[in-house]
Structures are given as structure tokens and as C-alpha cells.
Amino acid sequence: MTNEKTNIILIGMPGSGKSTIGIILAKMTAKNFVDTDVLIQLAEKRTLQDIVNAEGHMVLRSVEERVLLNVHCRNHVIATGGSAAYSDQAMNHLKKAGICVFLHADLPTLNRRIRNYETRGLAKRPEQSFQDLFDERLNLYTRYADITIASSDMNQEEVCDEIIRLIALAGQDLGKLQN
Fold first, then answer.
1. CA distance linking residue 18 with residue 122, whole number of Å
2. Which H or E run includes 148?
3. What pLDDT tens digit does each residue of the chain (179 aa) get?
4. Which of 95, 104, 179 is nearest to 141 (CA)?
5. Whole-angstrom Cα distance, residue 33 to residue 22?
6. Domains and CATH numbers, the chain
7. Is the dihedral of CA 122, 34, 167, 74 positive or negative?
């Protein structure tokens, strides 16, 4: 297998648009799409919230790490769960085959988008506020990001266009990223 990076990995907070942007970006770049939250649910045969309710947020993080370490694909847009960045091992595994894009939506934007914070299946401490979660994860996302998109004031197509533009600007060959 070649070492070319052919995947685009989307990271960011819940509500940043990873899944929605991922689908649109996959269409625009002629790539396949995978949502790792869906992979977790398929592997566990239950929802993320069911995992958190039954076993706690640290078990969800552990399951997520295991699932991410088993992602072996090429020519995909990968929408990760918001807590993927807690696993250094999983992030480094994904980055071997892809460019990591942080969809950085600001806290007011995320607060407008997230209506189900308590029941969304988030890997967070029970008492943890959304502000605390945002503050805690921001450094993790920044650490792993090859590209950061300030997406709060952009629509979905603009975000995708900017991702494509910045990948090209970073010297990555979209032809290789496409196929």
C-alpha cells in the first residue's frame, strides 16, 4: 500500500458540521464517506448515548479509539466523533492516510446548533458544561489539525470550497486526494 494521503479527516466539536460537511465534501471530491459515530453504533449495536448511560463516557472514548484504530480506507472523507481527538494513537493512525481538517465553529454558533446536549451521546463528564467541553477540546483539535477552517460564518458549500482551496494551498495534490 502506498503512503499517499488520500483521506480527508474532519474533526471538531459536536455541531460543527462534520457529518453534513463530510457528505457534501465527499460528493465534491469524488470520495467515499464514512461517519465514525455510525461505525461505533454498528460495532456496539447501540447508540452512543446508550453506551454513555450504561457504562460512562470513558467507555465510549475507549470504544471510539478501538473503532478508529480499525479504520483502514483510502479515498474517503472521514467524519470523526467530537471526542476522537482524545486518542493520540487513533488520531495518528488516521493522519497516516489523510489530511486532518478542524471545523472550528465558535461557541455561540455551536450553542445555536446543539439542542440535545444532555442526550446526544457525548463523551463528557456528567457535570461538564458545553463551555467546559469546548475549552477542553479546543487544544486537542488544534494539535491534530493540518488545516483549520473558521466555519461559523460560512454555509456548508463555502466550508467545502475552503477545505478544497486550503488543501491545494498546502501543496496537497487534490488529484491524489480524489483518486
1. 15
2. strand 147-150
3. 445 899 999 999 999 999 999 999 999 999 999 999 999 999 999 999 899 889 988 999 999 999 999 999 999 999 999 999 999 999 999 999 999 999 999 999 998 888 765 655 577 777 888 889 899 999 999 999 999 999 999 999 999 999 999 998 877 655 554 44
4. 104
5. 7
6. 7-178 (3.40.50.300)
7. positive
